[in-house]
Automatic annotation (TrEMBL):
Pathway: Cofactor biosynthesis; molybdopterin biosynthesis. The keyword Ribosomal protein does not apply. Keywords: Magnesium, Metal-binding, Molybdenum, Molybdenum cofactor biosynthesis, Transferase. Catalyzes the insertion of molybdate into adenylated molybdopterin with the concomitant release of AMP. It is an enzyme of class 2 (transferase). Its EC number is 2.10.1.1. This is Molybdopterin molybdenumtransferase. Pfam families: MoCF_biosynth (PF00994), MoeA_C (PF03454), MoeA_N (PF03453). PANTHER family: GEPHYRIN, MOLYBDOPTERIN BIOSYNTHESIS PROTEIN. Its cofactor is Mg(2+). SMART domains: MoCF_biosynth (SM00852).
Length: 415
């Protein structure tokens, strides 16, 4: 009987495997990046904060107008319609603080500081228009009307973002608005993809019997990009142990992680496993999961982490999602390296193998219900059906069938 694990021990549970993968991770050295230099924007977006950041000043900084119109003393408008004397204008960017006496006003634009002697804004639509000398105010306004108070969004010193937070577009803009000049961040790790398999030909090639189009390089480069992590290098290697070892030695120096596909099974030509079994920091395992069971994971002598995934395309995608993506996010110090698990109602049932976590590609309907994207009996090679998948259903080892109406755990990859 073939051993469950090519190293001779039993299969490891997916949870145990993820824990041992995450134990390998040493977070990258953080770098300080200025927010003032647009050349840094691409690196900042998707980087992960390595420090807590508090607001350097209140947000908004000072009381200002929410509308284009007139800054007024609200009491002057109580008997509107009323005519007020126009003293001038305060546009955005002006530091002026004109003093309004009774019956006086200034034109004011959105975002401009409210004069200290005013307590409300009348929108231009509620007046006779923009005038130089006198304006008719048509409506009374209460104190505070269309005024943004200093600090109403965030007080000075209040937290804006925490170490481990990913720098989304929204978070970056919040940090800049709150006065951050530069940020201590972990930028994207440098990742190499190494594809092995003698049967593989460049997409579009004329194929002889036994040859297929190579699709895992596009798969992994795309999954990395969808995780905000570009692949720095994509290479192919012939199934020759010396050549594979040479590529791993070379890629292991210049990259933080090397992700390979192919050659991790127990076959005679499964070169990746044979080479990696000689690496002292790498372990060949079978994970109690379907698809994606055989994998080699560890640290190369050359320095990089290595994730050797199966050649079967859906097995490689599942291995990436469950183990590689969390590890790469942990390299960046992500507070939540794993994707959140959601619940979904089953629309069409399927069978699941006992004793394994089944990771089934699914599509979702408009209400979030899920149905298989591929035949559940043969997931690993079904790259065609997988093309439409929007997520994975996670079916535990004690469940052998799910039926319509069941609620299952899902990972949602696409909206
Ligand atoms: N006797 C056994 N055979 C197999 C076992 C086993 O336990 N005992 N495990 C099976 C499982 S599970 C998997 S998964 C695969 C692992 O295979 P490998 O990592 O060795 O992958 P390959 O043999 O190289 O390829 C498998 C399959 O995928 C196709 N492939 C590979 N690379 C690509 C690529 N870049 N683009 C597109 N398609 C690719 C390849 O042609 C094969 O069809 O082993 C099982 N066997
Ligand atoms: O576990 Mo393999 O990954 O069935 O396809």
């Amino acid at each position: 009987m073939a051993p469950d694990n090519f190293s001779g021990t039993g299969p490891v549970s997916p949870g145990e495997h993820l824990r041992s993968v995450l134990r390998l991770v040493r977070p990258l050295e953080p770098v300080q990046l200025s927010l003032a230099d647009p050349a840094n924007f691409a690196a900042l977006h998707g980087a992960v904060l390595a420090q807590d950041v508090a607001a350097a000043h209140p947000l908004p900084l000072w009381e200002n107008s929410a509308m284009d119109g007139y800054a007024v003393r609200s009491a002057d408008t109580a008997n509107a319609p009323v005519d007020l004397q126009v003293l001038g204008v305060v546009p955005a960017g002006s530091g002026a603080d004109p003093v309004l006496g009774p019956g006086q006003t200034v034109r004011i634009m959105t975002g401009a500081p409210l004069p200290s002697s005013a307590d409300a804004v009348v929108r231009v639509e509620d007046t006779s228009g923009f005038h130089e000398t006198t304006v008719r105010i048509n409506v009374p306004v209460a104190p505070g009307r269309d005024v943004r108070r200093a600090g109403e969004d965030r007080a000075a010193g209040a937290p804006v973002a925490l170490a481990g937070d990913p720098l989304t577009a929204a978070r970056l803009s919040a940090l800049a608005a709150a006065g951050a000049a530069s940020l201590l961040v972990r930028t994207a790790p440098k990742i190499a993809v190494l594809i092995t398999g003698a049967e593989l030909r460049t997409p579009g090639s004329t194929l002889s019997r036994g040859q297929i189009p190579e699709s895992n390089s596009l798969l992994l480069a795309g999954l990395l990009a969808e995780s905000g992590l570009p692949a720095a290098t994509v290479e192919h290697s012939p199934d020759d142990p010396e050549l594979v070892r040479a590529r791993l030695d070379a890629l292991g120096v210049g990259h933080d992680a090397v992700i390979s596909t192919g050659g991790v099974g127990p076959g005679e030509y499964d070169v990746m496993r044979q080479v990696l079994e000689r690496e002292p920091g790498v372990r060949a395992v079978r994970v109690a999961i379907r698809p994606g069971a055989p994998q080699c994971v560890g640290r190369l002598r050359a320095g990089a982490l290595v994730f050797a995934l199966p050649g079967n395309p859906v097995s490689a995608a599942v291995g990436f999602e469950l183990f590689v993506r969390p590890a790469l996010r942990a390299l960046q110090g992500h507070a939540n390296p794993r994707r959140p698990v959601l619940r979904s109602t089953v629309l069409r049932g399927w069978k699941s193998p006992p004793g394994r976590l089944q990771v089934l590609p699914v599509v979702f309907d408009e209400h979030g219900g899920c149905a298989p994207a591929v035949d559940a009996a043969s997931i690993s090679h079904s790259v065609g059906g997988f093309g439409a998948a929007q997520g994975y259903a996670l079916i535990g080892p004690d469940t052998t069938a799910v039926v319509p109406g069941d609620t299952v755990d899902v990972l949602r990859l696409q909206p």
